[in-house]
Amino acid sequence: MEVSLFDYNLPKELIAQHPHIPRDECKLLVCNRQNHTIEHRIFKEIINYIDENDLLVLNDTKVIPARIFAQKPTGGKIEIFLLEEIGKGRFLCLTRGKLKKDTIVYLKNSKTARITRIENSDKRIVEFETNENIYELLEDIGEVPLPPYIQRNYDNYNKEKDFKYYQTVFAKKEGAVASPTAGLHFTEKLINSIKAKGVKIAYITLHVGIGTFRPVKEKEVEKHKMHSEKYQISKETADLFNQTKSKRRRVIAVGTTVVRALESSINKDGILKPQKSSTDIFIYPGYKYKAVDALITNFHLPKSTLLMLVSAFYEREKILNCYKEAIDKHYRFFSFGDAMFIY
């Protein structure tokens, strides 16, 4: 299957550069797979499409301030991008700027760290030299790792606003370096209203990695190697999932990260079991969904694995038609953009 089949033309001005405030008043494109219809709504109207005893599954990962600006002993500047915590105060990272082995770098507020290279890799390890809670330290010295298509002037930067709005209101477990953006549209009030309707709420944790922005460089979809991400499904979530399926009610995934976790964990008998694992599942047209019945998602980049995942949930041509409709209606695209509901 050619990667070019998932391409589309997007006017640059439709790439959202700032969050929509209030969160739940962004646009919502509603796509009915059975009737092949499209509706245009406001996101908080999603409650009208979710029924009593349906299960809404959210990703409670929390984005860490993974982008750090530092200074070398020589005075030169470097940028550190944290990828994954591998030990207490130790992270796998990428760096921008020339570094010698075991370089000590100077951070904000007189903090220091040591950076070492991993053999046969462009990745490095950063070891923070502190006894403080590492995540409290990162909130002090780090920046929100916004996607490359969101432009910021870091010399005149509203750190607090981006940290607030590039984080879901239900974010709980630190570890992501990118936000599960379909969840950004929910407010606490909307979640409470959904619960009051009799809808069940469950959480998985999948720490979104930088690989989510990795472009597909192969010409053929099948040759692309998918990145791996860690996730966890609790017993409570597994029980709610299995109860929902036994009652023939719908499981509604909020975002592609939830899809990846659920579809990676359901067994051949349709049972979801609690587990802590990692997944490199690659979902593209031809894949048969086993766990997810409806999907809330944002609008994704051309030729991306996320667009392929969504195209496997519906027909590729129909999804691209939805995208064309969204462009014609001036929807906002990507992380801070508007949403789709496909059911």
UniProtKB/TrEMBL annotation:
<comment type="function">
    <text>Transfers and isomerizes the ribose moiety from AdoMet to the 7-aminomethyl group of 7-deazaguanine (preQ1-tRNA) to give epoxyqueuosine (oQ-tRNA).</text>
</comment>
<dbReference type="GO" id="GO:0051075">
    <property type="term" value="F:S-adenosylmethionine:tRNA ribosyltransferase-isomerase activity"/>
</dbReference>
<keyword id="KW-0808">Transferase</keyword>
<keyword id="KW-0671">Queuosine biosynthesis</keyword>
<dbReference type="InterPro" id="IPR042119">
    <property type="entry name" value="QueA_dom2"/>
</dbReference>
<protein>
    <recommendedName>
        <fullName>S-adenosylmethionine:tRNA ribosyltransferase-isomerase</fullName>
        <ecNumber>2.4.99.17</ecNumber>
    </recommendedName>
</protein>
<dbReference type="InterPro" id="IPR042118">
    <property type="entry name" value="QueA_dom1"/>
</dbReference>
<comment type="similarity">
    <text>Belongs to the QueA family.</text>
</comment>
<dbReference type="InterPro" id="IPR036100">
    <property type="entry name" value="QueA_sf"/>
</dbReference>
<dbReference type="Pfam" id="PF02547">
    <property type="entry name" value="Queuosine_synth"/>
</dbReference>
<dbReference type="GO" id="GO:0005737">
    <property type="term" value="C:cytoplasm"/>
</dbReference>
<keyword id="KW-0963">Cytoplasm</keyword>
<comment type="pathway">
    <text>tRNA modification; tRNA-queuosine biosynthesis.</text>
</comment>
<comment type="subunit">
    <text>Monomer.</text>
</comment>
<keyword id="KW-0949">S-adenosyl-L-methionine</keyword>
<dbReference type="GO" id="GO:0008616">
    <property type="term" value="P:tRNA queuosine(34) biosynthetic process"/>
</dbReference>
<dbReference type="InterPro" id="IPR003699">
    <property type="entry name" value="QueA"/>
</dbReference>
<keyword id="KW-0413">Isomerase</keyword>
